[in-house]
């Protein structure tokens, strides 16, 4: 451990021509932690990561990795970091093993050490069986794992992951989450960008929510979820059932007031997790209410944005730089993206 934070960013600015990508970004990431940078398309996530990884020059502000200025001393930063890009950097014509060996050689490992390290990483990422196949025959998830393995040839002190699971199926996504958790246990600090609140929730100790190139909220995902009211349970009941009675049952188990949508015959209540589901079902059964549909709505990035900015997580530019004011409006329209049907009659 050093006395420095793993990552320190202050007032970071970057424009592409007249377009501002970073408008004074601030980040502080403690060593040994996972920090999530959560934001919609065009928020400036990749720009920030590329500057921190010394691949792009900033226009102004401060950016340090492990106490070293990335703008002034990039050569001291590079040996201590790894970067997995949004788009995989592997060579399609090479096999998985050859790709990793090549990266090892680029880092000046001996042929033998490079080969051993490659084999170890292929094993860890569940690619040992596919090691001898050309990367172009890999599925998207395998490609992404190979890309992550390539960024870990030197077991970096700080790892930047730019949307590591975008486009992966749920199983590959969970495999990736496990690998990332293992790395952190071994002492790597991770800064990851994501568009998924759920991913940040799984992995990150702290989160910075970024909108049009600046941080609009910072804290733990629990802090964020508290601000937006956490999960919501929606129960649709059969025609003719007692909606008021159902609302009372839900209110007993929820963390806030229940609301009734008489037209949809739906009763909703804020909850913390799915744990109270059995209790609610029993309670409704006792008063003779028949359930038609149960859905647990987990807050999404859209909900976070709706609460923090009054607009959804639209791509930057759609609302113009600066965007609408930060008034906390009523909880906005739900997207249904993250809606999970638990029971369907
Ligand atoms: N090379 C470039 N030239 C011009 N504009 C750019 C360039 N790269 C990024 N931008 C713009 O800068 C803004 C921030 O882009 P960036 O790629 O950092 O966003 P992001 O948060 O990574 O988005 P995504 O979630 O889509 O990957 C966007 O409006 C984008 O259009
Ligand atoms: Mg990006």
Automatic annotation (TrEMBL):
InterPro entries: AAA+_ATPase, ABC_transporter-like_ATP-bd, ABC_transporter-like_CS, ABC_transporter_ATP-binding, DrrA, DrrA1/2-like_C, P-loop_NTPase. It comes from the Bacteria. Residues 335-345 have a biased composition (Basic and acidic residues). Keywords: Antibiotic resistance, ATP-binding, Cell membrane, Membrane, Nucleotide-binding, Translocase, Transport. It is found in: Cell membrane. GO terms for cellular component: plasma membrane. Residues 312-345 are annotated as: Disordered. Residues 319-329 have a biased composition (Gly residues). GO terms for molecular function: ATP binding; ATP hydrolysis activity. Residues 7-237 form the ABC transporter domain. It holds the Pfam family ABC_tran. GO terms for biological process: daunorubicin transport; doxorubicin transport; response to antibiotic. It is a peripheral membrane protein. Belongs to the ABC transporter superfamily. Drug exporter-1 (DrugE1) (TC 3.A.1.105) family. This is ABC transporter. It comes from Parafrankia soli.
